Amino acid sequence: MFWIWTRFLVSVVGVLLTPGVHRASAIEVSTPKELTAVNGTDVRLKCTFKSSHPVSEKSVSVSWSFRPLGSGLEEQFFFYQEESFPPTSGLLKGHAVWSGNVLKNDGSITLTNVQSSFNGTYTCQVRNPPDVHGFTSELRLEVVQSVTLSEIGILAAAVGGAILLVLVVLTIVFAVRCFRIRHGDTGIELQDSKRASVCAKQEFMPISRLEKLEKDRLQDDLENRKLHEEDAHAKSDIKEPDA
């Protein structure tokens, strides 16, 4: 009895330590934890399993159950063993089809034309005698409303628009720079020529001033000489009558 309880506790610990997978003696059942689907599209509920015993179409059975969001009531709606038995009534009638392959350890189904009322928890259960215990795994489905553009599409459009705007701005800046460079060369040449002429004037200005000063000095000398000569003639004219 002690060993039985020990094995049971070991199995429970294994289940708790492995998220999304419920283990028991020799079989494992795995599903995604969460799935998201757009309203009106199809979504595949993936369920895989591993068993230590050989699998065959006759030995393996797969059943799916559904628990609506906010409700504690769970009911089986799909069963497969050698052939599929989809729901004939209820919410999922006409929306569940077999898409697995037990020979490849796949017990998946596909929900078609999903609706917002399909939100909830789906449980996959697999049996493969002598593994006949209830080995299950759960996934949560969220159905979102369809939109004209997905969030990824909107993000891609925004990024593309930003890149295009940057390219346009860079093109304008490049064109303006080229225009300024082309017209700036002529301006620089004119400015350089003006600077050269100014420098030349500045260089020759001292010489011109010296020449002017020299001319002024010579002219002053001539005027002084004339004055002296006139004074001399005037004095000579005065002396002659006295004699």
Automatic annotation (TrEMBL):
Localization (cell): Membrane
Name of the protein in question: Ig-like domain-containing protein
One Gene Ontology biological process: cell-cell adhesion
Entry similarity comment: Belongs to the myelin P0 protein family.
Pfam families assigned to the protein according to its UniProt record, in alphabetical order: V-set
Membrane-related topology note: Single-pass type I membrane protein
Signal peptide from the UniProt entry: 1-26
Domain Ig-like: 19-142
Region (Disordered): 221-243
Keyword terms of this UniProt record: Disulfide bond, Glycoprotein, Immunoglobulin domain, Membrane, Signal, Transmembrane, Transmembrane helix
Record PROSITE patterns: IG_LIKE
GO CC list: plasma membrane
Residue intervals passing through the bilayer: 152-176
